[in-house]
Specification:
Layout (H helix, E strand, L loop, with lengths): L1 H9 L1 H4 L34 H16 L4 H18 L3 H9 L1 H4 L6 H13 L3 H14 L4 H13 L3 H9 L7 H12 L5 H14 L5 H17 L3 H13 L5 H13 L3 H8 L6 H14 L4 H18 L5 H11 L3 H14 L3 H13 L7 H10 L4 H12 L3
Helix pairs in contact: 1-9, 3-4, 4-5, 4-7, 7-8, 7-9, 8-9, 9-10, 10-11, 11-12, 11-13, 12-13, 13-14, 14-15, 15-16, 15-17, 16-17, 17-18, 17-19, 19-20, 19-21, 20-21, 21-23
Amino acid sequence: MIAGLARTMRRCAVATVGVLLIASITPASAAPFLPTDDSQVIERLPTPAGGSKRELRDLRDALTGNPDDLPLAVRLARRYVEIGRTEADPRYYGHAEALLQPWWRLEAPPVDVLLLRAILRQNRHEFPAALADLSAVLAAEPRNSQAWLTQAVILQVVGRHDDARRSCARLALLAPALVTAACIADAASVSGEAAEAYALLRAAVEAEPDADAGLREWSLSVLAEVAARAGDPAAAERHYRAALALGIKDVYLLGSYADFLLDQERPAEVRELLAGETRIDPLLLRLALAEAKLGAPELREHVAALEARFATARLRGDTVHRREEARFALHLLEQPTEALRLAREDWQVQREAWDARLVLETALAAGAPEEAADVLAWLKETRLEDKQIAALVARLAEAPR
């Protein structure tokens, strides 16, 4: 479970998907669709095939007969979280939350509910609330490895790298060695110790060739990103391909590899990689970015689809996709001022390398280098090593004020 939920935690910023309220692609100018009858079907939720489908049905049937069975509700909620990650569909997270409602609003929810509530809140980018839940879990169960790992990942997402590393260190006696190594390396790689982090994690991966496939996929994707930020595309490519070869459906990995390919000016490969992934907003964005470079005829349709989806998300009050929307506004709508506004809003919530990069890119494009001042200070403080970001910093230093 640890490896699977680690991927869920780490990938929230990219892998969640905003789904249209209607099944067909809606032009950006169309009015939102409102059903006229409570029984009207808007869209059918994709259902996992085979054993997962049967397992979900059996668990739901059992819970219907015994709705107060907390262990059963927790088990089903966990499965929904896992499927939501695999399918990149937030509606499964909604199912999980609905199941936990009898315990969710208690003054002191059970520990299992608190942990799942933290995961679901983190998925919505409610980071302070998620961290508060995790503090309560760890106060009750100081040896809860999943809580320490989840806390570490959230702390890294919000830019608290030293705190993240301390949480990772608590895993040393609680989780497999590769979990601890991947956690520590992920945090260390963005706080001035990229080379050391890469060497640590590479050795750990090589020492455990038979580790859980999900854990290996996570570790390899961390190695790939560290190598890419360090400007070693050959190593990054090797790690990305090894991770993909494991055959695990992982939207985050696809998005990360697509970003790498875009940076390497290989849009045709992005188009091939993501050709069947138009349902998932972050992947459709990357596909459209590749199509823009290729002058592909599908670009117009995909831009309209993304515009409609972002508009629908705003109607729902969903602000999870600020990062993606900022990239969309900058590169596909060519609206640098709006892109800068979105990137600045994103920066107030999460502070990973891509969030910093977006503020720098949009500040340059909008002719407002002063808007990047706090990000530049943060980069200096954290000592984040990233070739793409370093180039943007150099350009900002030369930009007229």
